[in-house]
Amino acid sequence: MNIPNHQLRCLDCSSRNEPSVSDLSCAECGGLFVVDYLDAPDGVQPRLPMDDLLSANSLGEGDTPLVLLEKTGSELGLETLWAKLEFMTPTGSFKDRGSAILTTMGRDLGVREFVEDSSGNAGASLSAYAAAAGLKAHVFAPASAASGKLDQIQVFGASLHKIEGPRQAATDAAEKFVKERGLIYMSHNLSPYFSEGMKAVSYELEDVIGDGIDHVVLPVGNGSLLIGMVRGYRELLEAGVVSKIPKFHGVQAHAVRPVVAELNNEKWSQDDVQPTNASGIAVSVPPRLAEMVEVIRSTAGTGVTVPEESFTEWQSRLASSEGVFAEMTSAGAFAGLVKLIESGVIERGSNVCIPITGSGLKEPLAR
Ligand SMILES: Cc1ncc(COP(=O)(O)O)c(C=O)c1O
Ligand SMILES: [Zn+2]
Question: Model pTM greater than 0.85?
Fold first, then answer.
């Protein structure tokens, strides 16, 4: 390896660590890491942690379509409503952007076999990118995950470990397996490399719309898209390419709402979890909770919860009125947008972007 272009910095005590996919937390205090670059942003392309972009483990992710949802936008009284079609990627979700970076770093740092846990989409994505990079993947996912996602994990040649119980049970089982087998836990939620891949979403938005987005509304579970997009905008701001960062609003199911509860100083714990169709954001104990809250507050954004019926309602509405077949988790962002408009947080006449994070094709219709 050449001299690396970054170090890892502890979010809590600022201790530094050399680049690593296996050191997931600070040896001094247990805090999680963020990637700290040694050079300044140029605003032309996102700073990325690999030494050589040309040899990155890519399957053609990124550069997703940006479309105007004219009917929905005008029904909601918005100036523009943009949808960034993040499901138009090699494995059908935005996760491919993060998988490209994480597997490149893993491969370049000498990993041959790793363990991961996921609600489904990240596992499917990492399995594909592991195959491309020649890495062996063990993916722990809830047994209840959509069959389309579980099939993807298997067809890409990863070992699928189906775990009964809530999403957290898959994490616990993965951690136990790592200890027993002495394998590398390349968790996409703990490693700071995964969300670095999401910065490009902001660059692509800026490229087409410039400064013209007032609000981004997105589903949040572990926060990789949220954290990565805001980091992308911070780089663009630092490079003088944009003059403002849009307000970021995180949408969660009322059933599983740790981030929104924390933002609103509401007492909520994993004992309060209810069943939800929004499997991608059914994360009751997100390890980067404090970072997510900091990131949202830094943009003057908010958090909003949506009721269970809104996921299927908006899935059908988007499909039948716009021709966009979103995963239920992704469709819920539109219900969040409606609430934000009704409460006056998003003014009528605003310019809004919603990343549509996953494809409806992977899950059975829930009706
Ligand atoms: C379709 C979909 N949308 C949103 C998310 C939430 O992403 P994050 O955990 O990075 O906040 C996920 C995560 O699995 C997902 O699968
Ligand atoms: Zn620390």
Answer: yes
Residue 41 identity (one-letter amino acid): P
Q: State mean pLDDT over 220-241.
A: 98
Q: Which of 125, 218, 357 has most ligand 1 atoms within 8 Å of its beta carbon, as the pocket-test mutant?
A: 357
* Residue 199 to residue 195: CA distance in whole angstroms: 7
How far is ligand 2, taken at its centre, from the CA of residue 5, in Å?
21
| Per-residue confidence (pLDDT) for residue 200, from 0 to 100 | 98
* pLDDT tens-digit readout, 232-279: 999 999 999 999 999 999 999 999 999 999 999 999 999 999 999 999
Kindly provide the b/e burial profile for residues 324-344, where b requires at least 16 CB atoms within 10 angstroms of the residue's own CB.
Answer: bbbbbbbbbbbbbbbbbbeee
**Model pLDDT for residues 87-137, shown as the tens digit of each residue:** 999 999 999 999 999 999 999 999 999 999 999 999 999 999 999 999 999
Mean pLDDT of the chain: 97
Beta carbon of 358 within 6 Å of any ligand 1 atom: yes
- Whether the CB of 200 sits within 6 Å of ligand 1: no
Does ligand 1 have an atom closer than 6 angstroms to the CB of 360?
no
| Residues 6+ positions from 215 with CB-CB distance below 8 Å | 246, 247, 248, 249, 301, 340, 346, 350, 351, 352, 353
Q: Whose CA is nearest to atom 13 of ligand 1?
A: 280
Distances (CA, A) of 337 to 56, 141, 240, 354: 36, 29, 29, 9
- Which amino acid is residue 339, in one-letter code? K
How far is it, in rounded angstroms, from Cα 18 to Cα 147?
Answer: 39
pLDDT of residue 24: 97
> How many Å apart are CA 5 and CA 36, to the nearest integer?
9
Q: Which domains occur in the chain, in start order?
A: 66-93+196-362 (3.40.50.1100), 95-185 (3.40.50.1100)
Residue 345's pLDDT is 98
125 lines ligand 1 (CB under 6 A): no
Angle between helices 224-238 and 289-298 in degrees, nearest 10: 40
Ligand index nearest the alpha carbon of residue 26:
2
The answer to whether 192 and 288 are in contact (CB under 8 A) is no
